[in-house]
Amino acid sequence: MSIVAVGSVAYDSLKTPYGERERVLGGSATYFSIGASLFSHVNLVGVVGEDFEDTDLDLLKSRNVSLEGLVHRPGKTFFWKGEYGENLNEAITHDTQLNVFAEFNPEIPNSYLDSSIIFLGNIHPALQGKVIDQIGKGRFVVCDTMNLWINETRDDLLKVLKETNLLFVNEGEAKLLTGEKNTIRTGRKILEMGPQMVCIKRGEFGSILMNKENIAMVPAFPVEKVVDPTGAGDTFAAGFLGHVARTGKLDFPTCREAVKVGTVLSSLEIEDFSVERLKTITMEEINSRLEEYRKIIS
Amino acid sequence: MSIVAVGSVAYDSLKTPYGERERVLGGSATYFSIGASLFSHVNLVGVVGEDFEDTDLDLLKSRNVSLEGLVHRPGKTFFWKGEYGENLNEAITHDTQLNVFAEFNPEIPNSYLDSSIIFLGNIHPALQGKVIDQIGKGRFVVCDTMNLWINETRDDLLKVLKETNLLFVNEGEAKLLTGEKNTIRTGRKILEMGPQMVCIKRGEFGSILMNKENIAMVPAFPVEKVVDPTGAGDTFAAGFLGHVARTGKLDFPTCREAVKVGTVLSSLEIEDFSVERLKTITMEEINSRLEEYRKIIS
User: Fold this and answer.
1) Which residues in chain A touch residue B218, judged by CB atoms under 8 angstroms apart?
2) Across the strands, what pairs with A160?
3) A261-291 tens-digit pLDDT
4) 3 state DSSP class of B276
5) What does CATH list as the number for A3-159+218-297?
6) What CATH number labels B3-297?
7) Cβ contacts (< 8 Å) between B205 and chain A: which residues?
């Protein structure tokens, strides 16, 4: 199975307790594509500006990533500047420059139409809806979202959820979306909003995967040194959907295993800044950590 | 194996989002003894006042609990009045009357000396130390503690930890004890303080069991309706040590399984006020929920 990945491609300036980096490669579609391409072919949809470096294009080309849907526009690439304090779960944003991303209007090239999985990264739900209109039908539609869209564009988001097969959502966002306080009841409410499956992400406390018949509680991998948490959620989604794509199955047991692959891939990703760790990860490393992880959670 | 359980026996007045109860049976040794007696013989050490009801004595006697170490003193039984808001992880204390518990000086009856496991409930570490002096040697010493003792009686606590085989500790308390922010590193630091094993409890996020060679991440049972969280920690310890006692083994795989039994027992306990649910629980119910739990975490 191929995956269409729609989202931001960006440059980030980051500060964490382990150091600083200026204008390094970032964005939800970037993390997702590099991560998922370890498992499956990825068709990227995004937009970059004139400042986008050839070396970064080459990185994406060198992976199993199609770039026909990556549009180049006059102007600058989306830029985000942020910082993580001791609480690595929350970023403090110092600057956001949407640049060419402000006019992002995702168009799906014909060559992408044979994809079976559509990953809608964390962008405006109206744009997610446009992608669903173009290519959602009969495909496995996976959606990510955030507080901003839940608060500001709730109606658009609810429309997207009706067409969504699997929602990735942080625990706090899930509670905000449903107005529910108990996490399991939160999951049940989301399943009534459209998605057949929901994966509630709890950061260092692991994830919960639910459909109407099943619940899976999956612990986090015990990471001792988080160098840069940027991209952890998108890399989790990459491991998850990469595993689903390589097996070609969409049932609950496959998705439960996919949570573990996503957990392990993101636990590796956060060990270095930006996509540095993702660049060098091998399938052997993933499998070796998966084995270690299975011992810890078995 | 028999277990000696040292801790408070109390009356609690409770308010939770699900209702109120006046002067119901409580206390760490009470929850622990009733819970663990489902699996093994328990030798209780505690103190009650003249107001302690015969029906409550009868309840303990009706279980597999020896009461030779339960001292009756002139005065009133330890009383606690508290409330839980929407955040069920934190109790607001309205009143604490130590009463006869203020002079509690645990003495171990000779008939308890054949016990192999010593559970030191959350009491002043100097008292925990006295119990260790009397019966700790060569036995499996298990200790619970809290913020108050970490802040106010740190030296006493550090002495106790040197003699402790297994420490039960909440995540926040563990971080307070070690000054460490990462949970896994917190666990490693605790293992340097004396205990051969530590179980870090994360409430609705599950538990982490660690010794120097192993880590086990164990999810919580997904409870949808927490009626009264009082006693959850002691009931967790009861299921844990009850399982260890019935198997007669102290190795890591047994303790990892014990975390699951503790998780399941406490998930049942919090479904009703005080010890109401513990009174009626059968081994069949425990095993049935364990089976459900294994599906959720497998």
Assistant:
1) 219, 297
2) none
3) 999 999 999 999 999 999 999 999 999 999 9
4) helix
5) 3.40.1190.20
6) 3.40.1190.20
7) 202, 205-206
